[in-house]
Specification:
Beta-Lactamase; TIM Barrel; alpha/beta; 8-stranded mixed beta barrel; GGDEF_dom; Rev_trsase/Diguanyl_cyclase; GAF; 3 domains; 6-stranded antiparallel beta sheet
Length: 634
């Protein structure tokens, strides 16, 4: 008997060493490396099946009200026998899954047909045995993982094997819960809380999709940029509650007249955008329909008023294919319609483009670099703890010989559309110029960080690290004050490569920040996997922050996640004190925006900084004096 027990233990140890541990490790690796939940589940479920020698594994999740179970994903050798049950729903108190939910513990049924909770449909489907593990995250069951056998299991399964299967299931629960939270976050990010239409982020995502469809399948589409006439007057005379009711009414009216294939969103304020797939002959018909729907009469007696709409139309590909270009042209056409009295529409193709709006070519930028006409302007970034300036973001400008100043947007567009290495050359120029400026400031006892924007292509290009090495050799101290801002696309295109580059940056003393966080995929996975130093919350979440609970919840969530990962949070785009105080209350660490200062040329930085410092000191002196004057027992 003793020999048999030792033999069983040895066999169990063998299984644990040779089969189960590698399978478990594979599942753990899947969780940390895979961004796609379905790919992760495939790997993790395969590991469970190998552990148990099962024929398949199913992910069965509770609905939002926790009233029903629903089969979601399947994996295993008998997948064709499991697939018919995909989408199957049953009450949360039924079946072995219901029993596992109630007990919050795993249940192994060796003879499924004899179990009191067996479901007839599954018996007919050939299910012989199953092992149901509750998926628990944050102390709440979100579903079950059901491992299935379609013939009686040949061997007795050791308890250690069940325990390891439960360990993998716990990782599936965490990943599944994370996937659900990300879906909720993406939903919050895309919906306007007042009108329940797509918000700016949501409608712009749809616009990107339409642009992609045009490029792939030559499917034309139109943008209808709509601005309400008279809403400001209504707000001023009768209050914002009336204005909000008008906006809701306008949204509902537009819902009633758009086609099922059209997409409608609120850009902000009283501006709406409708994206419609159509031909050029339908533009006037659709625009007329929208204008008629938005002739809104409201109020009674002396409080009676009327709202109308001005509509600008951009048609792609005639007016361009790039989303921002189309939006700008539709906006210009709308403004033209409004100047003509409103309650009408105008076509972008009929609006003359001014000389200053003409596109700048890549050749122009190359010549400007050669002529030393490209320069950097600086916008301060403060600590929200004490309002001290801690750094500046460098922003590119073109100071032409004739005195005209060109902003960043047309320059960046020209560079992005250029062939060859202009984007790399330009990025390296910014790196060198910023490092040189940091070094010069330090000789003047002016110790501040400089944030620079690096494109996705440049960041992943070999010359980026080569240039950093040169800077480290030439301006060693400067690297510790340099912060490189990159967008999510640069990191998600090649996660492993991005990770290596970030680590090398940090070895050289350069910090890395995720820029425009919240406007892209915003995956929690890459924040966990990449060794970032900080992230910048996009300005779209800051604009309505004091009055928008959804934006506050989103910012609060981003701050909590970032701080849990030891990341600093910088909010950009703050324009007033209400936004500043809201961001400080929500726990943001740093702030950038017009409420502190607009971008300024280099020669103004020192004078501005000294003036700001004086004003800040006076403010704190007055505050301390007031505090000192308060009786101690008051």
């Amino acid at each position: 008997m003793k020999f048999t027990l030792e033999k069983d233990i040895a066999m169990n140890d063998f299984l644990l060493g040779k089969a189960t541990v590698p399978a478990l490790l594979a599942a753990m690796d899947a969780l940390t490396l895979e961004q796609d939940f379905q790919i992760f589940f495939k790997k993790a479920a395969t590991s469970v099946c190998k552990l148990l020698n099962a024929d398949g594994a199913a992910l069965i999740l509770l609905d939002e009200r926790r009233e029903f179970f629903e089969y979601h994903l399947f994996e295993g050798a008998q997948e064709e026998r499991l697939n018919p049950f995909k989408g199957m729903r049953f009450p949360a108190n039924e079946g072995i899954a219901g029993r596992a939910l109630k007990l919050k513990s795993s249940i192994y049924v060796r003879d499924y047909s004899q179990d009191m909770d067996a479901m007839p449909d599954l018996i007919k489907g050939g299910l012989a045995a199953n092992f149901v593990i509750p998926l628990i995250s944050s102390d709440q069951v979100i579903g079950v993982l059901a491992s299935s056998w379609f013939s009686e299991p040949a061997d007795v399964i050791p308890p250690q094997i069940f325990l390891l299967a439960e360990r993998i299931a716990s990782q599936i629960a965490v990943a599944c819960h994370r996937e659900q939270l990300e879906k909720q976050l993406r939903s919050l990010v895309s919906i306007d809380p007042l009108t329940q239409l797509n918000n700016r982020h949501g409608i712009m995502q749809f616009l990107d999709q339409k642009a992609d469809q045009l490029a792939r399948h030559n499917r034309s589409f139109a943008l209808f940029f709509i601005d309400l006439d008279g809403l400001k007057t209504a707000n001023d005379q009768w209050g914002h509650e009336v204005g909000d009711n008008i906006l809701r009414d306008a949204a509902n009216r537009l819902r009633d007249v758009v086609r099922k294939s059209d997409c409608i969103g609120r850009l902000g304020g009283d501006e709406f955008l409708i994206i419609a797939e159509c031909d050029e002959h339908s533009l006037a018909i659709l625009a007329t329909r929208f204008i008629q729907a938005l002739r809104i009469h409201f109020g009674k007696g002396r409080k009676r008023g009327r709202i109308s709409a001005s509509v600008g139309i951009a048609f792609s590909p005639v007016d361009g294919t790039e989303p921002n270009t189309l939006l700008r042209k539709a906006d210009a056409a709308m403004y033209s319609a409004k100047k003509e009295g409103g309650d009408r529409f105008n076509f972008a193709s009929r609006i003359a483009t001014s000389e200053s709006e003409k596109s700048i070519s890549a050749v122009d930028i190359e010549n400007a670099l050669d002529s030393d006409e490209i320069c950097l302007w600086y916008q301060p970034i403060i600590s929200l703890r004490n309002k001290h300036v801690i750094g500046y973001e460098s922003l590119v400008r073109w100071q032409k010989a004739d005195g005209q100043l060109v902003g960043a947007l047309p320059i960046i567009k020209a560079i992005e559309s250029a062939r060859g290495d202009l984007e790399i050359r330009f990025g390296n120029w910014i790196l060198q110029k910023s490092a040189q400026q940091i070094s010069e400031w330090k000789t003047q006892d002016f110790f501040h960080d400089i944030h620079i924007n690096i494109s996705a292509r440049h960041f992943l290009h070999p010359s980026f690290l080569q240039e950093l090495h040169k800077i480290h050799t030439q301006y060693a101290d400067a690297c510790h004050s340099l912060i490189v801002e990159i967008t999510e696309s640069a990191m998600l295109d090649d996660m492993e490569r991005a990770r290596r580059i970030i680590l090398r940056c940090q070895e050289l003393g350069v910090r890395v920040a995720a820029d425009d966080f919240g406007t892209g995929y915003s995956s929690l996975t890459y924040l966990k996997y990449l060794p970032l130093n900080s992230l910048k919350i996009d300005r779209s979440f800051v604009t309505d922050l004091p009055h928008n609970q959804v934006d506050r919840d989103i910012v609060s969530g981003i701050v909590s996640i970032a701080h849990a990962l030891n990341l600093l949070v910088v909010a950009e785009g703050a324009e007033n004190d209400d936004q500043l105080e809201s961001l400080r209350a929500l726990g943001c660490d740093q702030l950038q925006g017009y409420v502190i200062s607009q971008p300024m040329p280099l020669e103004q930085v020192m004078p501005w900084h000294n003036l700001y410092k004086t004003r800040s000191n006076n403010y704190f002196e007055r505050t301390n004096a007031k505090l000192a004057a308060i009786p101690k027992h008051a």
